[in-house]
Structure formats: C-alpha cells, structure tokens
Design a protein that fits this description.
alpha+beta; three-stranded antiparallel sheet; globular
Length: 124
C-alpha cells in the first residue's frame, strides 16, 4: 500500500493512492502543515536550461543527451521496459521507463544530478 496521507477538513486522515490522478482543486482537503494541497499535487517538468526547452518527449531528451555525450545503452534484460543512457567517461547510467507517461520527477532529478547546470525541474 503506497500513497500520500492527507487530512480532510474534519481532521480525519485518509490515504490517497495516487495523488496525481485526483483533482488538485478538491475543496475537502487541506494540509496539516498549513501548506497548499494544490501546490503539492502539481506536475513537474524538465527544462533544458541553455535553450529553455521543455522536454516533452523522449525524442527531444535523447537529442539533448546525445549532444552532451550520452549514448543509448542497450541491455537485453531491460529491452522491453527501460531506456538507458550512459557516458563513456563516467560510470553514470540513466534508466527511464520506456513509456513516457511514466516519466516522473524521480527520473527528472536523476537527469539533473548527472548533468549539473544543464537541466532544471520546475512546477508546471
């Protein structure tokens, strides 16, 4: 069982299985810390800083990564469900789900850490 625990207005906690599938404007919820629930449910976007381009597909991401020296890494074990990139000059490996709709902030921050000052994650 995974998800996020949220407080309703009446103070009762409940588990939200996937907060991104729930409408962000649900008025029956508020955060216990006083923060804005709607703000925590915002989607993230990956931005290529030199061009200010929002990465909206694996095609655009692969083009940018190739220009930075990353190469596609083909592994038979993960061929069906992962896209992987590596640099010959490092031990770093970027692993992404093959389905772009499953590309999330965890994958974005992995790219940011491995490419400092090139990418940035922002709220949409």
């Amino acid at each position: 069982m995974s998800g996020v625990w949220v407080f309703n207005k009446n103070g009762v906690m409940r588990l939200v299985e996937n907060p991104y599938n729930q409408s962000a404007g649900d008025s029956s919820e508020s955060s216990s810390s006083g923060g804005n629930q709607q703000q925590r449910l915002r989607r993230k976007i990956l931005v290529h800083l030199p061009t200010n381009e929002v990465v909206s597909s694996y095609g655009s991401l692969e083009r940018i990564l190739k220009s930075l020296g990353w190469e596609r890494y083909y592994n038979e074990d993960n061929a069906g469900h992962l896209l992987q990139f590596h640099k010959r000059t490092s031990i770093d490996l970027i692993s992404l789900p093959r389905d772009f709709s499953k590309f999330n902030s965890i994958h974005m921050y992995d790219i940011v850490v491995k490419n400092p000052n090139v990418f940035h994650v922002r709220d949409m």
